[in-house]
Amino acid sequence: MVHFLSGTDTVGLLVKISATFLCSTSLITVTAIGVDRLLALQLHLRYHAIVTPFRAILEVIFIWVFSATFTSAKLWSFSSLHDGIASSATIISLLVVNFVVYLKICLVVRRHKLQIQQQQQQQQQENE
Q: Which one, of 94, 93, 111, lies nearest residue 42 by Cα?
């Protein structure tokens, strides 16, 4: 089993290529979903005018092309050190973007929750 995953044969190489491609696609897609949710919260009614189905399709195509390019760059990389640094930098930057995006989402949701509570308190005071 270790020989199968070591990459010394064709099947092992295909497993590594598939894993790299699918993992990078997944991480970028999760980041895109987070950015989309943040845009929906911040843009309100302008969201549908800015985030159109055509732009969403372009984004999906970009994600797949970028992942394929990233994977092929790993294949043709002559230095495993540079490959490791590039992979680590890409993963860390995507994780940082995800953290910042979801932190902003939490702050927006908290602000909206406080605004709703204040409005409810004002309505209760007016009704009394």
A: 111
Nearest partner of 68 among 15, 31, 108, 17, judged by Cα = 17
Sign of dihedral through CA atoms 108, 113, 119, 121?
negative
3-state helix, strand, coil in the chain (%, to 5): 90, 0, 10
Give the Å distances, CA to CA, from 99 to 15, 37, 89, 103, 110.
29, 13, 15, 6, 16
Quote the pTM value: 0.79
CA–CA distance, 37 with 86 (Å, rounded to integer) = 28
One-letter identity of residue 46 = R
Q: What is the CA radius of gyration of the chain?
A: 22
Q: Quick one: pLDDT at residue 77?
A: 66
3 state DSSP class of 52: coil
